[in-house]
Amino acid sequence: MIEDLNRIIIEEIKALEVLLGCLDRQHEYIAKDDVFKMEAVVEDINNCNKKIAKLEMERRNITKGESMEQIVNASDYSELDENYRKARKLVEELKVQKETNEILIKQGLGYTTRMLQVLNPDRQPKTYGAYGKMKR
C-alpha cells in the first residue's frame, strides 16, 4: 500500500508541475495581453486538472478515507514523507499562481469596462430624484 501511495504521489507531483507550468504560461500571456494564447492554455489547464483528479481518486481508493497526513506520519517510509511534503508545497504554489492570475484578469476586465464606459457613456439623461440623488 505504501509503495502504491508513493507511486501515485510521484505521478501527482509530475502532473502538478505540468499544471504549474501551464499557469506560468497563462500568467505570461495575461501580462502580454495575448487573449488567443490565454484561451489555448485553458484547455491545457483543464487536461491537467482531469489527470490530477484521476490520480486523486486513485489515491483515495487506496487510503479508503483515511487522512494522508495520518498515513504519512504512521509510516516509516521517508521517501513517502518527502514526496508528500513536496506535493503539498506544489499545491500551495499553484494556489498562489492561480490567485495571481485571477486578480490580473479581473483588473484587466475592470480596466476594459471603465474604458468602454468612457468611450461609450450612458445615453440616458441624468436627473435628480426627490432626495437629490442622481437617477440613472
TrEMBL record:
UniProt superkingdom: Bacteria
Protein name from the UniProt record: FlgN protein
Coiled coil in keyword set: yes
Coiled coil: 38-107
Gene Ontology biological-process entries: bacterial-type flagellum assembly
InterPro entries, sorted: FlgN-like, FlgN-like_sf
Gene source species: Clostridium liquoris
Keywords assigned by UniProt, alphabetized: Bacterial flagellum biogenesis, Coiled coil
Keyword Coiled coil: yes
Signal sequence coordinates: none
